[in-house]
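Re-running the complex after MR caught last week's input typo. The corrected sequence lines follow. Everything else is unchanged.
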Amino acid sequence: MSDTRPRPVLLWFRRDLRLDDNPALLAAAATDRPVLPVFIHDPAEFPGEATRWWLHHSLAALTASLAGRGLPLVLRRGPAAATLVQLSRETGAGLVLAGRVPEPVQRALEEEAAASLGEQGVELRLLDSALLGVPGQLQTGQGGPYQVFTPFHKAFTQRVRISEPRDAPDRLSAWPVRVPGEELASWELLPRISWDSGLGDSWSPGEEGAQQLWRRFRGSGLAHYGDQRDFPAVDGTSRLAPHLHFGEISARRLWFDCLEANGAGVAEFARQLVWRDFAHELLHHFPHTTQQPLREKFAHFPWDGDPALLPAWQQGRTGYPLVDAGMRQLWHTGWMHNRVRMVVASFLVKHLLLPWQEGADWFMDTLVDADLANNTFGWQWAAGCGADAAPYFRIFNPTAQARKFDKQGRYIRRWVPELASLPDRHLHQPWEAPSAVLAAAGLRLGRDYPRPVVDHAWARARALESLRKMGTS
Ligand code: FAD
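Corrected-run output:
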């Protein structure tokens, strides 16, 4: 006897863990078929501890909001292609709908899944919603990829038609058959040693958390974004990066909300969203840049710093207060202010002369917003070896940066509490403070707080000499 039940559509959730403005979800509703949402966990996709923590909580939130609409989310672990084939066999599904993930490995995986499903007569339909536009859609006048942001931004705003965001569908019918899935807890995404309380205090992963954050920022931060975004002690940026990475909020929704918002900071914020598209554009055209410098001559850069200083940088014990504050903020909350990311990245590659890939790996492990495209772009920028990068010879002075962007030292005092009692004028350079000042602040340099692991002037000269060697090698 043949099975006459309607066959479901598989709705494959990936980096689009939301219901709002989700084209795959809308397409599933438009088929008028029962919908079976699935998430497939491939541990290799989320190697970082912080993003695994986020994924756990985000999936719990998505499970709850789908359940509220009567749809159970099926969790499976394994290679995506084989798991989708298996699920389509189990359910008789003839169509899989999913959001595209604009990363090289994911692109290969999508091709593999489409081929394996195709052999079974199942269609994989991929829809774009991760970015404002689609990587590869713009070309320069010469027909090549853009490598400089300003012309990319100009072409983007003039030529790209950003699709209007759409609300979640009113009605979705669930596949009435119970499909076995795995327990989220069995994936062990949460750390075994509980170091994650700072993450829990700082974040609410999931679509609801993303929307709340956006509402708050839109109401009070957005208009002043341009003036406040560079000061790490001020809550002046949106902190939406991890929510955007996991697709808990639609970039297009943010863009269209910005079109209706007033204030000097709005255009500047919208521009950051285009930076995000630009970073993905570069990754699309130059996938090797996750490991290799875009500017080839940097492949011969003499990274001969002392590897023993890497842990000092990672743990925020370099003796440079702004660098240490940033690295500790990262460790504690899974996030670091953009200005400070630039300073700590520059410090690693120029003051410590350690390869940018080491820093990129550490960020991928510890950031809740770890994102292959944005992180690769940020590190190549800092190391001077990427597209539109800061030239290597321009070396941030971490003390001058601290004086400029954390003048009163509020950020430093928060994250490096052992320096909190130092007067403002000595806070940024404790090694220059007279011993009476140190004693009054109860600070013993070298014991309570390290002396600088490298001298700024010496490190600067060494970095420039390395650049010269690279040029002549
Ligand atoms: P906001 O200032 O509120 O900006 C809004 C959004 O625009 C961000 O959420 C982000 O999606 C996007 N955006 C902002 N700045 C950039 C930028 N320079 N490049 C690309 N997109 C941007 N960002 C990540 O999302 N993931 C990373 O792994 C990452 N690694 C970085 C590494 C280095 C060395 C540097 C210098 C920057 C890195 N960035 C990364 C970019 C930037 O620091 C963060 O996007 C930003 O600090 C996130 O905070 P926010 O959400 O409050 O940003």
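None of the earlier attempt is carried over here. The beta strands are 9-13, 35-41, 74-77, 95-99, 123-127. Residues 36 and 285 are 34 Å apart (CA to CA).
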